[in-house]
Amino acid sequence: MWDRLRRRAWSRAGAVAAVVSTGPTRRVLGFSTRLVMLTVGSFLISASVAVTLWTELGPGPLDVFIGAVRNITGIPLTVAVWATVGALIAVAWILGRRPGLGTILSPFMIGPMLQSAFSVLERFDPPGSLLVRIGLQLVAILGIGVGAGALIVSGLGAGSGELLASATSDKVGKPETSVRFVLEMSWIAVGVALGGPAGLGTIMVAALIGPAVATGHGWVDAAAVRSIKTAANTHGAIVARELHPVGRR
User: Fold this and answer.
1) What is the pTM for the complete model shown?
2) What average pLDDT score do residues 20-31 get?
3) Left (φ > 0), alpha (ψ -120 to 50) or beta: where does 188 sit?
4) Which of 94, 156, 158, 201 could lock onto 102 through a cystine, CB 3.0 to 4.6 A?
5) Is residue 52 part of a domain?
6) What's the domain count of the chain?
7) Where does residue 10 fall: left (phi above 0), alpha (psi -120 to 50 degrees), or beta otherwise?
């Protein structure tokens, strides 16, 4: 599955879109759809991360590191997200993975979205049942995976975490899911050492985020391919009717 990320189109959906996009209108429509996917993916990631913070089981590994940055510097959450994600993008670029438009835009959307979603959730007390909180954490992890998959399939560039994992995987020659797990554990170690919060939920994210992104990418990619093929077939049928109208003599 992850070999597809090394293609220029980043996914089968991107490849199909490149073939069926003809004419200025369809090109604009295709880019608009990609921007919508980028926005929806960023929202899913933001809302899901907010849930992991709300459950109080411990934030995700990178969020542990971001929390440590906030504790040390006192900067707002949004700025801490931008600074951390920007550093990840820079390292991935140095390692050979050039960021796309979506890679750059997504953090500017995720920061404010995360702050807003968490502010809403803070109005409510988290569930008292540990099992319910674990269930919510699992759903949130899958949500992050689907959101990351939408960013990848949009063809505008993967998220910073996926970009860095891909770049590192290329350099060390190891599977991307394994590299992602090592990176996640590194965020935990460094973040805790710097005073960031961690807990059961942190370990859950570290262990499951790689498979969640792989699953989310597969789901979104398959759905996008079906939608693009349906749109292409519909467009072809309309053109055929225009060229060969029924009943015309």
Assistant:
1) 0.71
2) 47
3) alpha
4) 156
5) yes
6) 1
7) left
